[in-house]
Structures are given as structure tokens and as C-alpha cells.
Amino acid sequence: MLRLRVDVFVVEQECPYPELDGRDLDATTRHIRAVTGGTRNGEPGNDGGDVGGADPAAAPGATVGCLRVLRDPDGTARIGRVCTAARVRGTGLGARLMRAALDVVGDTECVLDAQTYATGFYARFGFRVEGDEFDEDGIPHVTMRRPRT
Fold it and tell me: I need a surface site. Which of 10, 33, 71, 133 has the fewest CB within 10 A?
């Protein structure tokens, strides 16, 4: 997962940022991955589940998409670090990852910080823009919230 996140956020988007923020190993963090050739579990914090990935060119078990679900101090769920490998974009994999994340979140209020260009994608899952656009590491973002259902 770390390799994919660095490939997408640091290399592809040319955005050096502190990837290792310490939250990946929090007891409440849930990781959801899309892997090729089936699913692979057993990593610390990986009890959120895996979804199958659509990339026959990648080695079996390669991570081609991932995200994490965190709990903010007030109990609100937070989805973050959503990414897919360039070669699998447009296959519906991002939507499968989001559906899996929302299965973990359940009816709890949920928030995420979306890159501005992706607000339409997250709106499909009930997220609405909240507040003004802000800059995060040189990339325009907005906070989006999905109320309790």
C-alpha cells in the first residue's frame, strides 16, 4: 500500500508530503485494498477488507488500489489516502473501494478531504462539500461530509 500511495501522491502528482503520519497502525484504522489475482489479508490494521483488482498485467497480490478509514477524536469516520494505480483507473475500482469503506463506516457520520477535481466522484456516495477550498501540499482540496444515515 505504501508503494502505491507514494507512486500516486508523491511521484505522479509531484506532491512530497509526510506519508508516514503514524495513523496507519492506529488500532482503529481500517485499510481496504484492491489486489490483483484475488485478495490478501493479514497485514496489521488490514481488517477492513480487500476488494479484487482488475489488472491482469500486475503480479498476483499486487496492490492496485487502497484507502484507509480512520476515527477522528470526536468519533466521526474519516476516509483518506484514496488512490488507484493509473492503469486501473476507469474500471470502477475506485467505486468498489468506496463502497467497501462505507460498509466499514456504516451509518456513522463520515468526512474526507477531496481533491477538488474529484468532488463529483465522492458526491455519488452521499458526500457534500463543506466549507471553502483549501490548499494541501499544493493541490486544491475541499472537505466533504456524509451525514449519519
Answer: 133
**3 state SS of 130:** strand
pLDDT digits (tens, 9 = 90+) for 65-89: 889 899 998 999 999 888 888 788 7
pTM of the complete model: 0.75
Q: d(Cα 109, Cα 82) in Å, to the nearest integer?
A: 18
Q: CA 111 to CA 77: how far, in whole Å? A: 6
- C-alpha cell read off for 69: 478509514
86: cell is 493509473
Whole-angstrom Cα distance, residue 141 to residue 149? 24
Three cell numbers, residue 17: 508530503
